Each structure stands twice: as C-alpha cells, then as structure tokens.
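Histidine kinase: structure, please.
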Amino acid sequence: MTGRILVSFLLLATVLAGVGTYYFQVYGFYDELPAQDTVRLTAAGEDALQDFAVRNFQGIDSDSSPIRYRACFDIDVAAEVLVPYTGATPLNAPNWFDCFDAGALTVALRDNRAQAFMAEGNISYGIDRVVVLMDGRGYAWQQINPCGEAHFDGDPVPQGCPPPPERRD
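Here you go.
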C-alpha cells in the first residue's frame, strides 16, 4: 500500500511540474505591451531612428529573453524609405498571440508577398528588431544577428561588429 501512495505522489508531482513548465513557457513570462501609436524604424539614409505612425498595435515581450518580443500593427509607409533586412526569420509566437503567424510570414517572405526591414539594429547586443510589411500590416520580432550568434557561441565576432560587452561569469 505504501508503494502505491509513493508512486501516486510521484506521478502527481510529475504532472504538476509538466503543467507548470508549460504554463510558464507559454503564458507566464510574457507581458502584453501597452497600445502604441508609433514604432521606431531605421529610415534609409538617416543616422537616427524615426517614429512611424501605426494603428491597432498589439505586442508582447518578456524580460526572460531578448528574442521574445512580437508585435502586429497597421502601418502606411513606403518601402523605399526603409532599410531592407536580409536573413529575416520570423520566430514563433505563443498560440494565444494570434495576430502573429511565423509560418505564414515565412511563406510570404519566400514568395515575395512581404518585405523585411530593419527596425533597430543591436537593440541589445547581437539582437536586431525586424519588421515585415505585407498589405498595410506590420509584424515585428527580435532575432539574433551574426554578431550575436558568434558572441553567444563564444566565438570571435565577425569583422564590422561592435565590440561585445564584457562577459559576466
């Protein structure tokens, strides 16, 4: 009888740990961002970031990782005034953040129905904020750039990268 109680307790603890892990990964660490009426983008030929008007902004972010930022918004901007971004790779968002579909964005980029632009480079070291524009709608996320990829792997950063921050061990 004692063995059954022990096994039941271990199974219950395992299920609770699994449910808790799922909750924190999908819901617990994300914060919804307040509504915004502008987003900052890198304009072609400009040294400073510029604010561009948006409508219907929805966004999420997390302090637990610099690449958890996701946003969706309506925007009217000519692609010619923005800096193109090569290597844009939309990152998945939690299922409950239903305005952002990384799979659909990937297909739209591949089929040239959407264009990727630099929102802000090195928003934190090695992390770029990327914006994709498609049919008057904007989608934003943060992804690791080549400087960050090398730095986070412990390799020397490529030529042209800003100096990496000091490591804290």
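Notes: Residues 2-28 form the longest helix (27 residues).
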